[in-house]
């Protein structure tokens, strides 16, 4: 029996198994051969991302621009306060204290833009137009007919010119009282100013029938030291 006849005598199941084995063996050899000729490419490694330091994920903090200090200070415009419309002065009355008189002030308002001379004129116009200040039980000893002839403020003091009626009537206490009213009212806006007093244009040297001597000029201090009300 030749080879072909022997092959025909092999059962079909065994022949199929052998064929499968041959195919498997051939496939394995073919796969190993292909892998040898085509090695596996290396796997790419990607860098790890640090979420805390990654510049793309950690944005810088945005801050306002800083103006460089040049050492210079910006001058601020001063706040301008409105000028007062009026200024306050005083006119002076007498009040009976029992054994003496006291000079008491009464405030008056005068336009702030008035000249110093006009302020004194306003003060005397108020003094000579009223008999006193009832709210303080104060009165005047200046005769009511007395008029202001002139008043001005000069470099050497305040000059007052009164009508002749200023010297009429009253005793020595009344004369001293009215002199004090004139001296203090004339210096209502400048208490330290010296006062020059004239009557009908002539300097006043003696006051009243008893001849009270009046020094020229006279300040408030001079009056307080020379006359006791």
Show unreliable segments.
14-25, 28-34
The mean pLDDT is 79
Shape, principal axes of CA atoms? elongated
Continuous helix count: 5
Q: Kindly estimate the percentage of residues that lie in beta strands according to DSSP.
A: 15-25%
How far is it from the N-terminal to the C-terminal residue, by CA?
A: 181 Å
Q: Which value, in Å, is the CA radius of gyration?
A: 61 Å
Structural class: alpha+beta
**DSSP helix fraction:** 25-40%
Q: Within the largest sheet, what's the order of strands?
A: 5-6-7-8
Give a count of the beta strands, DSSP E runs of length 2 or more. 10
Largest sheet: 4 strands, mixed
SSE string: HHEEHEEEEHEEEEH
Descriptive terms for the model:
22% strand; alpha+beta; 4-stranded mixed beta sheet; two-stranded antiparallel ribbon; 229 residues
Explain the overall architecture.
- This protein is an alpha+beta fold and about 230 residues long.
- Helix content is about 30%, strand content about 20%.
- It has helices at about 5-10, 10-35, 115-130, 170-185, 220-225; strands at about 85-95, 100-110, 130-135, 140, 150-155, 155-160, 195-200, 200-205, 205, 210-215.
- The strands form four sheets. A four-stranded mixed beta sheet has the order 5-6-7-8, covered by helices on one side. It has a two-stranded antiparallel sheet with strand order 1-2.
- The N and C termini lie far apart (about 180 Å).
- Mean pLDDT is about 80; it is low at about 15-25 and about 30-35.
């Amino acid at each position: 029996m030749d080879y072909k006849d022997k092959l025909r005598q092999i059962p079909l199941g065994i022949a199929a198994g052998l064929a499968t084995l041959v195919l498997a063996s051939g496939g394995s050899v073919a796969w190993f051969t292909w892998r040898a000729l085509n090695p596996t490419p290396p796997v790419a490694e990607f860098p790890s991302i640090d979420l805390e330091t990654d510049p793309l994920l950690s944005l810088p903090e945005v801050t306002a621009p800083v103006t460089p200090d040049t050492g210079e200070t910006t001058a601020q415009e001063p706040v301008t306060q409105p000028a007062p419309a009026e200024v306050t002065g005083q006119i002076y009355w007498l009040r009976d204290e029992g054994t003496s008189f006291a000079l008491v002030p009464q405030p008056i308002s005068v336009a702030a833009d008035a000249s110093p001379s006009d302020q004194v004129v306003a003060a005397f116009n108020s003094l000579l137009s009223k008999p006193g200040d009832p709210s303080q039980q104060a009165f005047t000893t200046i005769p009511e007919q007395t008029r202001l002839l002139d008043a001005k403020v000069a470099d050497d003091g305040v000059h007052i010119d009164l009508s002749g009626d200023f010297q009429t009537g009253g005793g020595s206490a009344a004369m001293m009282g009215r002199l004090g009213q004139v001296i203090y009212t004339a210096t209502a806006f400048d208490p330290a100013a010296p006062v020059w007093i004239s009557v009908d244009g002539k300097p006043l040297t003696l006051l009243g029938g008893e001849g009270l001597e009046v020094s020229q000029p006279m300040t408030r201090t001079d009056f307080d030291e020379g006359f006791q009300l």
